[in-house]
Amino acid sequence: MKPQDIIAGKTSLWIFGYGSLVWKPDFKYQRSKVGYIQGYKRRFWHGDNFHRGNDELPGRVVTLIEDDDETTWGVAFEVAGSQLEESLKYLNVRETVCGGYMTKMVDFFPEGNDQPPVQALVYIATSDNPLYLGPATSEEIGAQIAMSRGKTGHNLEYLLRLAEFMRSSCPHVEDHHLFSIEATALTMVSYLFAAQ
To answer: Which chain regions cross the lipid bilayer (predicted)?
Structure first.
């Protein structure tokens, strides 16, 4: 889906973030809402050789994997007017050119029982992407994250900020994949510091 196809005939658009967008959108928006999408689970199965890693040691960042029984919590940002085109240009570089993600429209359910779902754009890295790393154990992923660094910063920062978002904004949600990788990565970092 190309940006011009996404905005054709629209005056506003919701963009759903489930990774670094939840704590670092870096584009202007009208408002944001915490909520979830259905039919997907968040996994650290995508490689990053730019923002959080490099070609020799790619970092691990999240993507969405289809799973009918799962939900993924995050933040949706509403962009309107000139923000619409500006945000999509920015995200095209950040998520598509540098990250290898594709776009899809999904139903976003804002937190709270009285709010109807809205259509939102989401960026997803698929297994046919050359940066896609696929499944691994929490220990393997945590160790890779603990040792990776890219142009935007350490991969551990990405992991810790995402875990902190979930604890502060979605305290009722238990993301076992995220929290087990966080525990493993923190243990690995403590061993690395102790060894110095």
So the answer is: none
In contact, 166 and 127? CB cutoff 8 Å: no
Instruction: Retrieve residue 17's tokens.
Output: 């973030």
Q: Tens of pLDDT along the chain (196 residues)?
A: 555 566 667 789 999 999 999 999 999 999 999 999 999 999 999 999 999 999 999 999 999 999 999 999 999 999 999 888 888 888 887 677 656 788 999 999 999 878 899 999 999 998 888 899 999 999 999 999 999 999 999 999 999 999 999 999 999 999 999 999 999 999 999 877 777 6
Query: 114 burial class (0-12, 13-18, 19+ CB within 10 angstroms)?
Result: exposed
Q: Active site residue: 78, 95, 140, 164, which one?
A: 95
85 is catalytic: no
Question: By the 8 A CB rule, do 15 and 35 touch?
Answer: no
Domain ranges of the chain: 3-195
CATH numeric code, 3-195: 3.10.490.10
